[in-house]
């Protein structure tokens, strides 16, 4: 194993010297970094069917979205492919469907296995490319080798989540277990080892995330300047979406939420077609993808360009809660440890600033904590284990997280001799990059203070 270890070290030095100038080297380094953490071979599956294959009526509506782990390790956004990593020999093998020229006539060029051709290797940087029909025979040969040598582990790895049942990764795990059972081998998940690397962004991915922030900022400022011309949620969201799309790689990070008035109290509101009413707030949750990274931003603005006193008070409480939380974000802590900070702060400030100072009342639509204040951002906009959201992961420099406190409910208070009551939803979200000593708000240039928002929405004279 010493020779293998030295090979890995030499390989890593080459990539550091190249400064990640070549995408094939990026993917190769990721595969080798994962292999260094494993003591047995590992099988990973891309998506097994293309959109529309199971429900034909959506075929022209849905684009191919690859399994993020498979995409992270290969760059291959195509269905029906597998990757096998064998750390004992530092070997990587890609299994792809047979080449299908007729299908390419309809949908464009795809990678595919052709005997004697090295085209797929040239594209992916993986030297050993085989037809997918040979996957299980190859796996059996690795299992047979492990079983024959006492020093070899009696397990293999697959990428799956214990908390998720029935997805394609779980089906792979079950199929692999069936193949390994005759050899007395078990199947372990490599999810933890994979995310140890994937959650920490390389320098070039940090640059992509910052570029996404800039594209989002420019689109948002453009939207604010035209705020008085939007009559419906649809008008507003479509304008914002176009501004982000034309500045990004063409894709949004997720479907934009544009929720006016009481609609903002639905956390994942996507209807986006009701009238915007003067005197109400509109909550926006939006972002764009650039490269493989995303922005994930929330802002809440007054439809008529001016916060009323109740809205301004609640907005400032949420804004301050985010600042209070960001002070605790640093390496060495987990999101689970610090997750209650903004919610405790909001409850205390509602009592102080609303109830005591303005004879206010409030009825929240939840019990103290409406949602998590943070999630990781990376290959997915909600990065990490889908069951636990990786909240127990200890923060490290290079990780990117959201910071999104919010408040949703019915509120009232006395302001300047007048009683104001409303059902209000407010969320303010920024993206925080973990540094060596704390965090850096890479969304800081996207307007969010009451004063700046009102100034930017003021009609030109």
What this model shows, in words?
The strands form five sheets. This protein has a six-stranded mixed beta sheet with strand order 4-3-2-1-5-6, sandwiched between helices. It has a three-stranded antiparallel beta sheet with strand order 7-8-11, covered by helices on one side. A three-stranded antiparallel beta sheet has the order 12-14-15. By secondary structure, the protein is an alpha+beta fold. The protein folds into two domains: 2-198, Creatinase/prolidase N-terminal domain (Creatine Amidinohydrolase, Chain A, domain 1, 3-Layer(aba) Sandwich); 203-457, Creatine Amidinohydrolase (Alpha-Beta Complex). A hairpin with a 4-residue loop joins strand 16 and strand 17 (439-441). Helix 11 runs antiparallel to helix 13. The chain is built from 14 helices and 17 strands. Helices cover 37% and strands 18% of the residues.
- Strands side by side in the biggest sheet: 4-3-2-1-5-6
Query: How does the overall form come out from the CA principal axes?
Result: elongated
Oligomer: single chain
Q: Briefly note the CATH topology name of the largest domain.
A: Creatine Amidinohydrolase
How far is the N terminus from the C terminus? 74 Å
Helical residues, percent: 25-40%
CATH level 1 class label of the largest domain: Alpha Beta
Largest sheet: 6 strands, mixed
Number of distinct helices? 14
| CATH 4th-level superfamily of the largest domain | Creatinase/methionine aminopeptidase superfamily
According to DSSP, the number of beta strands is 17
- What's the CATH architecture name of the largest domain? Alpha-Beta Complex
The assigned structural class equals alpha+beta
Low-confidence stretches: 1-21
Radius of gyration, taken over Cα atoms and rounded to an integer in Å? 25 Å
Taken as a percent bin, the fraction of beta residues is 15-25%
Tally of distinct domains: 2
Average pLDDT score: 92
